[in-house]
Recover the amino acids of this structure.
């Protein structure tokens, strides 16, 4: 085998290998964007559903894409005020729902009632005393929803599914259905 | 046996091409058609022409969500997430803009978008400022039909800014 042939063989092999690596990363990207992916949930706003120190959850991308989410689902939404961040909240109302919410739960019982506009959703954290949600920035457009959280995978003690609805009497769940 | 092998090889090849294609269009940019006359004369200048303009959409701007006045962007309609619109950014966060109901301040993380053809455009004058997170990409070039291939200028509209 001449030197040239040997080199041609090596180059061909290297191209084949790098193409299969590229294919692998593309497959990961497609799975992450269109089927499901993982996310790290952190912070006080979703207590007691998620703890303070951070949990890794599985995220379902299909149901948000086809509009299969409803009140009670935990979703990941791109923050309307800082577009580089994503936040975890629970959907309280879909378009057309009438929502009554407590404006400032730490200081008063004053409530306000609004109707969620077309194409928007109303999201709130489960820990209404320490969360920055639709009560601050208003209803969010549906297009900002990134995926539905459906399974906790880490830490192992918390492994399991996430209920579709919070318990009756949960302070975060205040929908007036008409 | 030979046919089966060949079919599976062809299938694998198309699957690989599909995966790579989807990834590239999602992450770096792709071509998409423009429908409607809301951005005339920049896109689709003649009413009733058979061919829509096809544009190149780049997605590198989504890494940092950095946009500037005059960029033409594609975003999902805030009132119906299945529809996409193409409009020009007229004002960024913190700017003041005069609307029918008075002067509006664009909130943090939002932008104000308007069509170039203000007579037939459903834009921020109806639905208000939109979050930057709804934006899918920035339009840089018209790529089809051939006689209309050109770069899209970053035009800064003068009227309206208060």
């Amino acid at each position: 085998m001449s030197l040239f042939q040997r080199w041609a063989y090596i180059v061909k092999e290297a191209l084949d290998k790098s193409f299969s690596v590229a294919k692998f990363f593309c497959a990961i990207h497609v799975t992450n964007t269109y089927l499901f992916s993982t996310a790290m949930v952190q912070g006080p706003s979703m207590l007691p559903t998620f703890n303070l120190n951070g949990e890794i959850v599985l995220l379902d991308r299909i149901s948000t894409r086809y509009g299969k989410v409803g009140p009670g689902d935990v979703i990941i939404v791109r923050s309307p005020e800082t577009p580089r961040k994503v936040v975890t909240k629970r959907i309280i109302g879909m378009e057309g729902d009438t929502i009554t919410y407590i404006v400032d739960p730490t200081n008063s019982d004053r409530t306000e009632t609004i109707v969620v506009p077309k194409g928007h959703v109303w999201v709130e954290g489960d820990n209404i005393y320490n969360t920055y949600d639709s009560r601050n920035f208003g209803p969010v457009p549906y297009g900002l929803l990134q995926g539905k959280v459906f399974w906790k995978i880490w830490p192992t003690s918390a492994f399991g599914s996430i209920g579709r609805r919070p318990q009756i009497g949960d302070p975060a769940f205040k929908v007036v259905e008409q | 046996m030979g046919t089966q092998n060949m079919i599976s090889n062809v299938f694998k090849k198309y699957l690989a091409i599909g995966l790579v294609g989807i990834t590239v269009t999602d992450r770096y940019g792709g071509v998409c058609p423009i429908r409607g006359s809301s951005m005339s004369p920049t896109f689709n200048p003649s009413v009733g022409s058979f061919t829509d303009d096809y544009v190149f959409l780049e997605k590198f701007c989504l890494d940092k969500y950095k946009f500037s006045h005059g960029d033409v962007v594609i975003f999902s309609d805030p009132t119906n997430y299945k529809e996409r619109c193409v409009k020009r950014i007229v004002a960024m966060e913190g700017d003041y803009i005069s609307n029918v109901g008075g002067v509006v301040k664009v909130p943090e993380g939002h932008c104000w978008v308007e069509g170039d053809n203000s007579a037939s455009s459903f834009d921020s004058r109806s639905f208000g400022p939109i979050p930057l997170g709804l934006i899918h990409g920035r339009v840089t070039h018209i790529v089809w039909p051939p006689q209309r291939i050109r770069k899209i200028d970053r035009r800064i509209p003068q009227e309206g800014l208060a």
Notes: The mean pLDDT of chain B is 85. Residues 73 and 138 of chain B are 4 Å apart (CA to CA).
